[in-house]
Amino acid sequence: MNGRVGRWGFAALVWGMVGMMVVLPPVMVFAGALSHGLRAAWDGLCDPDALSAIRLTLLITALAVAINSFFGVMAAWTLTRFSFPGRGLAIVLVELPLSVSPVVGGLVWLLVFGTQGWWGAALERWGYPVMFAPPGILLATLFVTFPYVTRTMMPMLRHMGRAQEEAAVMLGAGMWRVLWHVTLPGARAALLSGVLMTTARAMGEFGAVSVVSGHIPGLTETMPLHIETLYNGYQTVAAFAMAALLALMAMGVVAVRGLVERTALRMGKIA
Amino acid sequence: MTPGPMTPAHDMDGGGMAGHCAARQGAGGHAPFTLWRRRRDGLPGFGVGLSLTLGWLGVLVILPLLALLARPWAQGVGSGLGAFAHIVHDGRMLAALRVSFVSALVAAALDVVAGVVIAWGLVRVRVPGWRVIDALVELPFALPTAVVGITMATLYGPHGWVGAPLSHLGMKVAFTPLGIVVALMFVGLPFVVRTVVPVLRALPPEAEEVARTLGATRAQVVARVVMPALYPALLTAFAMAFARGVGEYGSVIFIAGNQPYHTEIAPLLIVIRLQEYDTQGASLIGLVLVAIAMASLGVIAWVRRHVGRGGAGGAI
Questions:
Q1: Among B282, B195, B170, B191, which residue's Cα sits nearest to residue B242?
Q2: Residue B164 is part of which domain span?
Q3: Which band of pLDDT confidence, cut at 50, 70 and 90, is reported for residue A249?
Q4: With A81 labelled, which of A231, B31, B210, B254 sits at a CA distance of 20 to 30 A?
Q5: How far is B186 from B245, CA to CA, in rounded Å?
Q6: Set of chain B residues whose Cβ sits within 8 Å of the Cβ of A116
Q7: Looking at beta carbons, which pairs linking B133-139 to residues 24 or more positions away fall under 8 Å?
């Protein structure tokens, strides 16, 4: 840069851009929540519908993270350790949900389980409605959070190589023992990073869930959907209170993930 | 760059070649059926792993996508073809697709510019507090889209912190196409910064210094030394931000105003069509969006395979 003035000018430009584009919106969330004092924000969160939304979000997130983490690890391992016809296609399909619109992630389930869908009418007749009920919300969340664990695990598994796993097999370990005692401990940081990414996305998913939920307050509303209902009902303070809580949860998860990655990187550099 | 957890998005496919070739060699000269057994490559669990992977993929991705692909043909091939032909005449659908497409394009382009400046400040200039910026840039990833949506609508609304001063200057952001771009820029920015920073780190500053000592002007250094090394990363980042922007819903609908033909985005029109019980119309828009997403993924894959192998190296 052109001397001190240029350097400070550039710093001001960068900070201005970051402040305007990145910092201002999160600050606004908390300012909006506290605009009528902490008390009003707290009251907004204690509403029974709000509590039910928080509960549903926690439940769906826990289930989605558990399911997608298990299968995500298995997929990452299978896709890096074995070669088979169609492997490339499988990798593309794993990545696909990331770039597809979240609304499509809800629509596709409507086409399978909706009343006009393939199996919706039959399931409803048997008394198991999937759409506009928590199972549909879970499916939509599973779709949009599908790739995270696999795509963070795969480069790590490839980096680790297979020598240690082969050695364990030679010593008599079976597949699950290899995975549990050799593969997972080695890829711990990558797994944790993927799981946290899945968690953050699952908590905040809006578009996909919005299509399949039916928006029944107290029953099928997750936190993001409840934010929409409150905001459209001009309950701005309650909407921002809920938004601030959700933002805190997601930002906490992402911060932990950053910490994990930084620690892993530092340890990797020492080794 | 080590393929450590810091760069999880990169190189999904790169290292697969080694295993592939090993399998080929091992299989050479055997009867066709041993081909399959040979692919176990010495590790147990191929059958279990493959069935779990395909089962998971099949139920959660392939089945629903097949339902989407099959939907237009549900009432026969003729009516399916008719539906596709009808897209051209559905002005509202075309307008919504254009709004999503153009605003995602503009937002991604602006993100690339802003992202490069920020990345440059982080890596090369090391502006005061660059570590803080490094952490802050993650924020848009962390904020759920609905939260972004109501925040942007309030911030840029007529009484918002940014919207009020702007409206004094006669500028309207919320409920105009500009509002859509602003929301999409927020969502897309981290893609650019996270893609460009590692490439810039891997690019030795000596190259730029050498060019300067050889008499290049600063503009020449940027055009001839920095940009050629950076442009695969920029293309990838642009495609990622664009793909995200075209399908974006939650962060946009609150600020967009959602006027048909003007500020109505394609994902919102899917939701509206579904509320009208027009599943067919919703599916057609969905298919177009999936096609755009696949095309963006194709660009990213192409860059990785053909351009990324060159100077900019493994960081992409």
A1: B191
A2: 86-315
A3: very high
A4: B31
A5: 10
A6: 277, 279
A7: B133/A14, B133/A15, B133/A18, B134/B197, B135/A258, B136/A18, B136/A22, B136/A23, B137/A18, B137/A22, B137/B189, B137/B190, B137/B193, B137/B194, B138/A254, B138/A258, B138/B190, B139/A22, B139/A23, B139/A25, B139/A26, B139/A251, B139/B190
Q: How confident is the model at residue B8 (pLDDT cuts 50, 70, 90)?
A: very low
pLDDT of residue B138: 86
Structure tokens at A167: 């050695």
Domain match, B67 and B91 both:
no
What's the pTM value of the predicted model, to 2 decimals?
A: 0.86
**Domain co-membership, B102 together with B251:** yes
Across the interface, whether the CB atoms of B283 and A253 are under 8 A apart is answered no
Q: What is the mean pLDDT of chain B?
A: 82
> Is the Cβ pair A82, B19 closer than 8 Å?
yes
Least confident of A9-18, B39-48, B154-163: B39-48
Q: Establish if B79 touches chain A: CB-CB under 8 angstroms.
A: no
CATH of the domain at B189: 1.10.3720.10
A149 CB near a chain B CB, below 8 Å? no
pLDDT of residue B308: 55
- Is some CB atom of chain B closer than 8 A to the CB atom of A180? no
Beta-carbon separation of A83 and B23 below 8 A = yes
Evaluate if residue B237 carries a pLDDT over 90: yes
Q: How confident is the model at residue B315 (pLDDT cuts 50, 70, 90)?
A: very low
Instruction: Give the pLDDT of residue B225.
Output: 86
CB contact under 8 A, A83 and B20: yes
The total number of structural domains that make up chain B:
2
Using DSSP's 3-state secondary structure scheme, residue B172 falls into coil
Of A7, A97, A112, the CB nearest to B63: A112
pLDDT tens for B185-209 read: 999 999 999 999 999 988 888 888 8
Residues B187 and B53 reside in one and the same domain: no
Classify domain A33-270 at the CATH topology level: MetI-like fold (1.10.3720)
By Cβ distance, the residue of B4, B61, B277 closest to A264 is B4
pLDDT at A2: 52
